[in-house]
Amino acid sequence: MNLTHSIPMTPTGHRRLQEQLKQLKTAALPAAIQALATARAHGDLSENAEYDAAKSHHEQLLKQISDLERKLTQAHIIDPSSIVHERIVFGATVQLRDADNGDELTYQLVGTDESDLKQGKISVESPIGRALIGKGEGDEVTVKTPKGERAFEILKINYC
Q1: CB of 88 within 8 A of CB of 133?
Q2: What is d(CA 137, CA 155) in angstroms, rounded to the nearest whole number?
Q3: CB within 10 Å: which end of the chain, N or C, has fewer?
Q4: Distance CA 70, CA 60 (A)
């Protein structure tokens, strides 16, 4: 059974992961290897807390690098500007009106690794993201959140 699956991401998200991987491999990993060598040089490893900490940090970096390499290998890059669609799909930037208070919100639906609420990027796997998929302008959606149900009207869908 093949357990690999594609991971949707925008070109921006893909570049960000590539840059993160490059930084880990070219700066963080060599520094961790040097710290490990320095701690090892201090003698008895069985009672060397500095060595244990350096080894643990090194292992965490290797895991991060492996995880990023897997994600980049499985990346399915979707450029929102190439999408022509009347319904909400991955990459859409959606303008919503909160039915409770009338506030207007704008979100872009992105992959899990790209989500950043401060930048208005939400995961397609989030409750709001899942509720929006397949909907069109003028539709109303109800989203179950930890704070209860919230209703939104879809004002505009954009792919840019």
Answers
A1: yes
A2: 6
A3: N
A4: 15
Report how far residue 12's alpha carbon sits from residue 158's, in angstroms, rounded to the nearest whole number.
17
**Is pTM beyond 0.90 here?**
no
CATH architecture assignment, domain 80-158? Roll (3.10)
- Whether CATH 1.10.3720.10 fits 7-77: no
Within 8 A by CB and 6+ apart from 4, the residues are: 74
Q: Which two tokens stand for residue 50?
A: 């500095």
What phi, psi does 114 have (nearest 5°)?
-100, -15
Cβ–Cβ under 8 Å, residues 100 and 149: no
Q: What is the pLDDT of residues 28-70, one digit of tens each?
A: 999 999 999 998 887 776 777 888 899 999 999 999 999 999 9
Q: CB–CB of 72/14 below 8 Å?
A: yes
Cite the residue boundaries of each domain of the chain with CATH code 3.10.50.30. Answer: 80-158
Q: 15 — alpha (psi -120 to 50), left (phi > 0) or beta?
A: alpha
For the chain, residues classed under CATH 1.10.287.180 are 7-77
